[in-house]
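Sanity check

After download, print the first record. It should look like this:
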Amino acid sequence: MAKVAVIGAGGVGQVAAAVLLQEDHDVLLVDRSKESLHRASQRVKVPTAVADATSLDDVKKAVGQVDLVVTALPGSIAFRALKNLSSLGVDIVDVSFFPEDPEELGKEFERQGRTLIVDAGVAPGLSNMLVGVGDRRLGGIRGAYIYVGGISERPDPPLGLVPSWSISDLIDEYRRPARVIQDGSLVKLDPLSGPLGTIYVPGVGELEYFPTDGLRSLLKTYGGRTEFLAEYTLRWPGHVNFIKGLKRLGLLDHRPVNIGGYEVMADDILASLLWSMKVSFNDIVVLVVDVFGKDKGGIRFVQVTRAESGLTAMSRVTGSFLAYVALAFLEGKIKGPGLIYPESLGLNEVVAGEILTYLSVNGMPLVEESLM
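Expected structure tokens:
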């Protein structure tokens, strides 16, 4: 039994803590908000501690000696928090989507003989692992397309989604240039300009897609040796045109506007509206990963995760994958030291197989089919 500190008591952290507890590990749930910890303790019966992850002294006092730290923090503070936490001299598995390059952190962990596993979520995360699985099974790849989205279980105009993750990260999807590989070269695309298209997902229906900047480490590990590589966000049809309308109104801009004599940021107005949305449906998370071999053919992986037992689908699948990666590390199946990206897990038949089995047994299976 290992002692694990899970930092971040949101939905993802709660699920990860629950899975680790179920596997008989000693779990401590940490958050800077007493209210968040109180809500989390109603679902996960583990000890809790109040600490700000960006304060090393805070974390040291709260956590003490642990075997592993699992972090589920907002992207806006995650890099700074990980920099502080690196001074703990402990291995870390992180799920956060932060804009900074983790290579600097990886060098510090390698110097300490410790391991940092990053992007252990859905996309990036599980999607990266599946690219690695396809690479291993196909004996090399010429490219891959990732389609992923957290949406309402049925079309629910105008947005068709349940705001179950960071609103700032959601807004950034529409304005951050999407880096993709086309004809072997790195190019940047405007998410709302395309290429746009539709894809049919069994059990869900027809969804539209637009390019987003989610390839992350895949640009480093596969960008120089593939013809094409892209991530697309999935939404219900009509979503992109609605967001284009918001963009024309200036609501995607991070700029001050004057309303009734008060200066507010335009995108803060949109964020407030999204948070206050009344949504009557549960969410689902749809993931499709197409991996193409060097010759003809390839593999399509499809996963549709639904909300269950009061948990959003997004928290459920993200927190579970995070925990399964942590379990594989605790069991000595993932070797460090230094920085580890999730695509490398797919190259390890044992690790990838066990994680896919965990997902299947817990109601989040991946369906595979051959691509001609």
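If your output differs, re-run the checksum step. Summary of this record's structure: DSSP finds 13 helices and 18 strands in the chain.
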